């Protein structure tokens, strides 16, 4: 834990009656050192990094999400995700602005078509919270990067012209930053294309801005059933009663299937205890843990990366101890646009002429026949 350089009385993040209004949360985001220092005891490292961060990636956090942070402990897992640290400024040879080469596979502004049957559609540059490990920090928070109405038309024409596209993923920034009527329009257009089998929405708003899940938004989802929502919880602290209630609403009122992708982050969730609590917590909230990602090689994120060998060992300790329903697939998205590769633990110890020898999660050997 770092030392405080400011001994002013800290104020609660908000008692405003508008707190449950998602637009109020967006408008009242904390965006600078002065705002943040009213709520957290900032260390000198955090203060210096906040000043410099505008050069590389914006800083922003909702009152709701900041309310989950420990005001006195700079090692708090919420704080580490949103408040910049000096390690962001240390360049590493492998780090890239666009590690997944999304801009190289972009036939139309905003559309990344890398896998044959899937296309990702970047729809908004705004996020409620700017995560320090974000893969798209090259463009997130920059309005010039967001497609406009003409780009939308071209994207829809592209989807129509490519029968191999079976799935469209609405992404960003956060696509839930669009209004319900715009989302309704986009979902209607996509569902009208006969070869599109499913639509997925990638959003961190259930984590950072759960008040965005409203009865009106759920009504939109219901009209376009089935819609798959993939959210992004990284730590059990993020599974608040409020966010759980909103997930329940998504599932029950929106008829949505909700999945989660986490990033394995050093000092935040890289222990068996934290991951088990997270995976059980997600499942009990009605969310299927889907992916656990190795942190992409985006610039300024090296201090978050956990060695793959450690990630494999963590998953090996977890698999077998908890239900398979709670266990996500550990993957690395290959730098350069190679796509996702699963990182399975090795259980097969030996292949003999007429049998196999396996080591189970407890470390015991078992031999089975061909
Ligand atoms: S919510 Fe997603 S897109 Fe937005 S800053 Fe965080 S990781 Fe990046």
| Helix and strand composition category | alpha/beta
CATH domain class name of the largest domain: Alpha Beta
Beta content comes to 15-25%
Extended strand count:
12
Mean pLDDT: 93
Task: Identify the bound ligands.
Answer: iron/sulfur cluster
Can you say what the CATH homologous superfamily of the largest domain is? Aldolase class I
The main sheet orders its strands as 1-2-3-4-5-6-7-8-9
The biggest sheet amounts to: 9 strands, mixed
- Give me the CATH architecture of the largest domain, please: Alpha-Beta Barrel
Anisotropy-based shape: globular
- The total number of structural domains is 2
- Proportion of helical residues: 25-40%
Radius of gyration, taken over Cα atoms and rounded to an integer in Å: 21 Å
Q: Any idea of the CATH topology of the largest domain?
A: TIM Barrel
* Low-pLDDT residue intervals, each spanning 5 or more residues: 1-7
Elements, N to C (H/E): HHHHHEEHEHEHHEHEHEHEEEEE
Q: Give the distance, in angstroms, between the N- and C-terminal Cα atoms.
A: 55 Å
């Amino acid at each position: 834990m770092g030392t405080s350089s400011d001994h002013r009385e800290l104020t609660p993040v908000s008692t405003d009656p508008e707190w449950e209004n998602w637009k109020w949360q967006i408008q009242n985001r904390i965006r600078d050192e002065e705002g943040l220092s009213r709520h957290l005891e900032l260390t000198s490292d955090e203060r210096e990094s906040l000043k410099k961060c505008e050069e590389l990636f914006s800083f922003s956090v909702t009152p709701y999400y900041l309310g989950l942070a420990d005001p006195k402990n700079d090692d708090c897992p919420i704080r580490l995700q949103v408040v910049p640290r000096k390690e962001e400024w240390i360049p590493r040879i492998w780090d890239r602005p666009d590690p997944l080469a999304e801009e190289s596979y972009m036939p139309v502004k905003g559309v990344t078509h890398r896998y044959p049957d899937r296309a990702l559609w970047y729809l908004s540059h705004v996020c409620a919270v700017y995560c320090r490990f974000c893969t798209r920090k090259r463009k997130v928070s920059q309005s010039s990067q967001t497609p406009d109405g003409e780009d939308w038309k071209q994207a829809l024409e592209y989807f129509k012209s490519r029968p191999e596209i079976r799935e469209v993923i609405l992404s960003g920034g956060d696509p839930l930053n669009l209004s319900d009527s715009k989302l309704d329009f986009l979902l209607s257009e996509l569902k009208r294309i006969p070869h599109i089998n499913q639509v997925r929405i990638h959003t961190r708003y259930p984590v950072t801005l759960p008040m965005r899940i409203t009865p009106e938004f759920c009504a939109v989802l219901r009209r376009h059933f089935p819609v798959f929502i993939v959210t992004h919880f990284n730590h059990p602290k993020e599974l608040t009663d409020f966010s759980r209630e909103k997930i329940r609403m998504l599932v029950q009122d929106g008829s949505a299937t909700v999945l989660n992708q986490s990033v394995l982050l050093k000092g935040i969730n890289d222990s068996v205890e934290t991951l088990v609590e997270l995976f059980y917590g997600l499942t009990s909230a009605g969310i299927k843990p889907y992916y656990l990602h190795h942190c992409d090689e985006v610039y300024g994120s090296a201090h978050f990366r956990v060695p793959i060998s450690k990630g494999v060992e963590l998953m090996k300790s977890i698999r077998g101890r908890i239900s398979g329903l709670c266990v996500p697939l550990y993957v690395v998205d290959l730098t350069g646009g190679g796509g996702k590769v699963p990182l399975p633990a090795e259980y097969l110890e030996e292949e003999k002429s007429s049998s196999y020898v396996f080591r189970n999660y407890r470390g015991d050997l078992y031999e089975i026949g061909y």
